[in-house]
Amino acid sequence: MPLWDDYQELLKSPFADMANIGGRYGGAISAACFLSRFTKKFDWAHLDIAGTAWKSGADKGATGRPVPLLTHYLLQRAGKLN
Q1: Higher model confidence: residue 18 or residue 64?
Q2: Which residues constitute the domain of residue 13?
Q3: pLDDT of 35
Q4: Less packed terminus of the chain by CB within 10 Å, N or C?
Q5: What pTM does this model have?
Q6: Do 31 and 66 share a domain, yes or no?
Q7: Do 37 and 9 fall into the same domain?
Q8: How far are the Cα atoms of 1, 17, 24, 58, 59 from residue 44, in angstroms, in the given order?
Q9: Is the pLDDT confidence value at 62 over 90?
């Protein structure tokens, strides 16, 4: 994911040291730019799950959809699953 300076600019804020949301477009990239400011010495990944995390309409609310997949992956990586 590109972390170009143009996207870092989206995090400027007149009220705080930085904003935690960049705007309508480039949301996944600006979120990754935000995280990059705190993870300089670590390998990391930004998982953009916003599209699957919420339901709208009569069933409005959180889906929890990414949780089982991520839990299974992490347990497998930790050697807790075959």
Answers
A1: 18
A2: 1-42
A3: 92
A4: C
A5: 0.67
A6: no
A7: yes
A8: 12, 23, 24, 36, 33
A9: no
Tens-place pLDDT, residues 12-53: 999 999 988 877 777 888 889 999 999 999 999 888 887 777
Written as one string, the DSSP assignment of the chain is ----HHHHGGG--SSSS--S---SSSHHHHHHHHHHTT-TTS-------HHHHEE-GGG-EE--THHHHHHHHHHHHTTS--
Model pLDDT for residues 2-13, shown as the tens digit of each residue: 788 888 888 999
Q: Give the integer Cα–Cα distance in Å for 15 and 37.
A: 18
Structural domain count of the chain? 2
CA 71, chain centre distance (Å): 16
Cα separation, 3 vs 47, whole angstroms: 15
**7 shares its domain with 29:** yes
Q: Does 37 share its domain with 54?
A: no
Interacting residues of 72 by C-beta distance below 8 A, sequence separation 6+: 81
